[in-house]
Amino acid sequence: MRLPHCHAVLAPVLCVLLALLAPPARASDGPSASGEVARLYEEAAAATQKYEDGKKAAARERTRAGRLEGLLTRQRSELALLHADLGRIARSQYRTGGGIPYTAQLLMADDPDQLMRGQRAAWQADLAVDNAISKTRRATDRLERDERTARSAWQAFDRRQSQLASLRTGIERKLEDAQWKLQGDADGQVTAGQCRGAVRLDQPALPTGKDWVKPVRTYQLSAGFGGSGERWSSRHTGQDFAVDIGTPVRSIGAGRIERVSCGGSFGMEVVVRHDGGYYSQYAHLAAVTVDQGERVQPGQWVGQSGTTGNSTGPHLHFEVRLTPQLGSGVDPRRWLEEHGVKL
């Protein structure tokens, strides 16, 4: 906010009173749009993580259920063989007098001792088969219960994944609406050539033990330093990161905010003067989260990406310069790599 002009003869106290009575700069809906985008980004990330975790858990359950099904199939096959053996034993007993009482068989036998030994062997075979059948049936019952449990788990996972997918879609739709609201507000500031001031957002914990970081966490590299094309009057002066509107943009290192400006080919931009003499620029923003002269740390948010100024789509234009002015840029990708940051 600019202070009212004070005449030299006015008392200092009167000047202060005039400054306090001056109307503050309108913030419009810029801060709320910025905050909404930041909040929805977090929600979308959380919903996506839950969805991916659910997919992994469902895959594990399907693998487990598949193993159980294979075991169940083998057990059923073994049970069928045992039933076949039992049938053969029963038929053998019938052929050797299975319908005649055992006492009569002893009286009629030429060798009662041999008959008794055979009968004892038959009883032992029957007992072994019965035990095997009981054991297999218990195993079959257990596996069938596991199969029902696994099937229920599949169905529950499918329902949960469907709900998470619907939730994620809803958040992404809200996020898209908020992004373009934020971008529209930024375009208004750029058209007016005046930024409305820093948007204060709740920032995550800063990275520890790092002097230099990437300007955005997740991205796809697009146009690089020194490239040529119809979009630039000469060579491309920085490195572009393809990111969505509202993506948090971070200061690559410690320093002080040299400039915050709106207007011109770079649209809304921030320039940071780093300890050691270099400068970094963050352009085509949709919001700024710092004020000129403010001290920043590595990883601190300085703005949110957008597509203001001479831009064909949402992205961050990033430069490393020897001076604050355009034309003194060095290859930012190589410079970052020399400082331990690989893109």
What's the helix-strand series?
A: HHHHEEEEEEEEEEH
Strand content: 5-15%
Total beta strands: 10
User: Structural class, from secondary structure content?
Assistant: alpha+beta
Average pLDDT taken over every residue: 78
Main sheet: strands, sense, barrel: 10 strands, antiparallel
Percent range of helical residues: 40-55%
- Shape field: rod-shaped
**Radius of gyration from the CA trace?**
39 Å
Ranges where pLDDT stays below 50 over 5 or more residues in a row are: 1-31
For the record, give the distance between the C-alpha atoms at the N and C termini, rounded to a whole number.
38 Å
How many helical elements? 5
Element layout with pairings:
Elements: H1 12-21, H2 30-95, H3 102-108, H4 112-192, E1 220-221, E2 239-242, E3 248-250, E4 255-261, E5 268-274, E6 279-288, E7 295-296, E8 301-305, E9 316-321, E10 329-330, H5 332-338
Antiparallel strand pairs: 1-2, 2-9, 3-8, 4-5, 4-7, 5-6, 6-8, 6-9, 9-10
Question: Overview of this structure, please?
Answer:
This protein is α+β, with helices and mostly antiparallel strands. The protein has helices at residues 12-21, 30-95, 102-108, 112-192, 332-338, and strands at 220-221, 239-242, 248-250, 255-261, 268-274, 279-288, 295-296, 301-305, 316-321, 329-330. Strands 1, 2, 3, 4, 5, 6, 7, 8, 9 and 10 form a ten-stranded antiparallel β-sheet that branches. Strand 4 (255-261) and strand 5 form a beta hairpin. It is rod-shaped, with a radius of gyration of 39 Å. The two termini are 38 Å apart.
